[in-house]
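User: Design a sequence. Structure:
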């Protein structure tokens, strides 16, 4: 049997797997490698991320590209997140053979039509519905220039997503996103495949913790807005300790939080500190302000934490509803927290998670499904 080889294009460098956008990418590479697939990885360097030797363990080739920033990333028919990754070196490397191409996110589709003309086998992995995601970023951003950029990008993305070939094989991370692409963008070949994760072992502690926890990247405007909403509408009404933990909280957020006696913020915890915070919390309070994509912080909390309280947007189409307490508004969330705060997390809840979660997040089963679709 001939070797199976594939090109995978990542919008970012997928190691370290230290934020939601790259966890699925890295653990998918690892799972494909374990099945004997030869990977030619193409990834973009920007921000603080650098070339990583770790990726050589799982990939035959690793190519890095710079993004075309500033005016070079502006196009009349492609969104900035796509055009800024239209590095000609990438196309040259893709054209060196006829192996299939997996494009990780809309971001990586800049050479779509060039490859289709050559009848290459192409698959698009959706990270979320980007036009909706950018629309949410626009709604939650305070900076005027960023707000204009997010609105413009959202409009461009909607036209671009609609224009993708009707029969392009698309693999989504949530049932919601799959339905949206089928119904709104009229794509016929859309499948759902859960995200790849570090471990499918349920490690929740029984008993009672002594605080509620929200964790996430606090530099993201949407997460900051979710925290402010929780403090104003939930934790100002109930006298329950609330811990907010995550990367780079703004000075404004720290000041806002400091006015509330029962709320504290932990900025930039280490990986070990975050693991302990998740493990020892009594309740994870993780509402979402958008219902696209999948919430990796919720998956983490379900595998490693106690009670999880969410809103509908956080779980719709995820298959995780049965393992969460869902509140439809602030009053409902406050009421659920009050009921759960002194309720021990026990064997029955752990049994439910051990039954439910590994069925969805089974890297071996999911990678075999992916291989079947591609080959």
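Assistant: Done.
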């Amino acid at each position: 049997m001939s070797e199976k080889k594939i090109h995978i294009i990542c919008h970012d460098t997928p190691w370290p797997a230290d934020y939601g956008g790259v966890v699925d990418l890295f653990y998918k590479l690892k799972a494909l490698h374990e099945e004997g697939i030869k990977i030619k990885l193409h990834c973009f360097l920007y921000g603080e991320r650098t070339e990583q030797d770790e990726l050589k363990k799982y990939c035959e080739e690793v190519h890095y590209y710079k993004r075309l920033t500033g005016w070079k990333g502006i196009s009349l028919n492609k969104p900035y997140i796509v055009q800024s990754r239209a590095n000609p070196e990438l196309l040259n490397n893709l054209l060196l053979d006829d192996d299939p191409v997996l494009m990780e996110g809309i971001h990586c589709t800049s050479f779509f039509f060039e490859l289709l003309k050559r009848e290459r086998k192409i698959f698009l992995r959706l990270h979320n519905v980007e036009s909706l995601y950018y629309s949410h970023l626009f709604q939650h951003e305070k900076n005027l220039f960023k707000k204009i950029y997010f609105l413009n990008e959202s409009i461009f993305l909607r036209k671009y997503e609609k224009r993708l070939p009707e029969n392009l094989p698309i693999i989504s991370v949530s049932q919601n996103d799959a339905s949206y692409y089928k119904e709104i963008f009229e794509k016929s070949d859309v499948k759902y495949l859960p995200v790849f994760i570090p471990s499918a072992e349920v490690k929740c502690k029984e008993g009672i913790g002594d605080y509620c926890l929200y964790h996430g990247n606090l530099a993201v405007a949407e997460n900051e807005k979710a925290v402010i909403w929780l403090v104003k509408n939930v934790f100002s009404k109930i006298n329950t300790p609330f811990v907010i933990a995550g990367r780079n909280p703004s000075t404004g957020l720290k000041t806002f939080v400091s006015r509330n006696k029962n709320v504290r913020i932990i900025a930039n915890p280490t990986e070990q500190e975050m693991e302990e915070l998740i493990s020892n919390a009594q309740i994870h309070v993780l509402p979402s302000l958008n219902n696209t994509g999948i919430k990796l912080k919720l998956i983490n909390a379900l595998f490693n934490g106690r009670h999880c309280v969410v809103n509908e947007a956080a779980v719709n189409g995820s298959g995780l509803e049965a393992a969460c307490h869902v509140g439809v508004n602030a009053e409902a969330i406050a009421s659920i927290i009050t009921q759960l705060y002194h309720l021990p997390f026990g064997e029955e809840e752990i049994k439910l998670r051990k039954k439910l979660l590994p069925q969805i997040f089974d890297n071996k089963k999911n990678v075999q499904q992916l291989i079947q679709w591609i080959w």
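The longest strand covers residues 38-45. Residues 305 and 355 are 16 Å apart (CA to CA).
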